[in-house]
Design goal:
Elements lengths: L11 H4 L23 H27 L5 E8 L5 H7 L9 E5 L5 H4 L5 H5 L7 E5 L8 H4 L5 H4 L2 H14 L2 E9 L2 H13 L10 H6 L2 H15 L6 E5 L3 H17 L12 H14 L1
Parallel strand pairs: 1-3, 1-4, 2-3, 4-5
Helix pairs in contact: 2-12
The structure holds adenosine monophosphate and magnesium ion.
Length: 289
């Protein structure tokens, strides 16, 4: 295969987007849809697209410093070991940290529990000019909460429509939502958990509780299926990313995020001063100082 062929044959924005009839049961987590290259080609592409991503992010940030009202929200969901942390480090890490507002969502605190489940999410929404990144999200309230019945089925059952309505409001307020679910296979999860045990530098990532959660794998897959069936909307579609190959998942999320920013047609904000006048002032200082 020629070098020029080792690239995106189909855009992941289209290929990975959930469409009606999508089934997680038959999804191949080891696949690399739309990308014709391998691990090494992906590294080259990441670098190239990282440059584009970084420039677009600077435009977004500059617009936010001006009169811009728009921002981006990257939502990352996935089972334990699916590579959420790697996305933060390798994808989000390619842009200027000043422009990123990162938030991880764990078990709600007592304070958070005393509010509506969307309260802490709403509080973490990105401000204009920023890329907000959610490591887990409000979807936990229809995933872990559903799997363990932390609330009655009648309660979590109403959340899908509520989440859609809330996301529609968020999108209408100028926040472009990019939702990514990293899907790792059950076999690969076991490999990754085992690897965490075998390496002292990975022990900090190992949580004995992950094995307990693994016991509910099928219930989690059902809960993810419901999320894809009910919460992939026009304004906030889900993208399901095969995550057994970390290089592919990172490349795909990079591309999704970059394309989302490209679609925003971000221009550099116009100067709020007279450029010619300022030039002349500087020229004058050069002569007089
Ligand atoms: P980690 O991402 O490894 O730091 O783990 C965070 C943990 O918090 C996961 O086990 C999540 O399932 C859990 N979690 C996140 N959101 C919620 C929620 N709304 N209710 C209950 N558990 C949650
Ligand atoms: Mg974990």
């Amino acid at each position: 295969m020629g070098k020029k062929d080792r690239e995106w044959r189909e855009s992941p924005t289209d290929t990975l987007r959930v469409t009606p009839g999508f089934s997680i049961a038959t999804f191949d987590c080891a696949s690399t849809p739309g990308f014709t290259g391998d691990h090494d080609d992906a590294a080259l592409f990441m670098e190239r697209r990282g440059v584009a991503l970084s420039e677009l992010q600077e435009r977004l940030f500059a617009a936010g410093r001006s009169d811009g009202t728009r921002s981006v929200l990257l939502v990352i969901q996935g089972m334990d070991t699916s590579g959420k942390g790697g996305i933060m480090r390798h994808v989000v890490g390619m842009v200027d940290p000043q422009g990123v507002q990162h938030q991880s969502f764990g078990v709600p605190t007592e304070d958070e529990k005393s509010h509506h489940y969307l309260w802490r999410i709403e509080n973490a929404l990105p401000t204009p000019g920023h890329i907000g990144v959610f490591d887990r999200s409000h979807y936990e309230d229809v995933l872990v909460v559903r799997v363990h019945n932390y609330v009655e089925p009648s309660v979590w059952g109403e959340r899908y429509d509520e989440i859609n309505a809330w996301e529609a409001r968020v999108a209408a307020s100028g926040i472009r939502i990019v939702k990514c679910a990293l899907m790792v296979s059950k076999a690969e999860q076991l490999n990754r958990l085992e690897e965490r045990l075998e390496r002292a530098d990975k022990h900090w990532k190992y949580n004995p509780h992950d094995l307990d959660e693994r016991a509910s794998w099928d219930a989690y897959m059902e809960a993810y299926q419901a999320v894809f069936d009910r919460c992939s909307t026009e304004n906030a579609p889900w993208h399901v990313i095969p995550a057994d190959n970390k290089w592919y998942a990172r490349l795909a999320v990079t591309e999704l995020l970059t394309q989302a920013l490209e679609a925003m047609d971000l221009t550099w904000p116009a100067a709020k001063f007279d450029v010619e006048v300022e030039r002349q002032r500087i020229a004058h200082l050069r002569d007089s100082e």
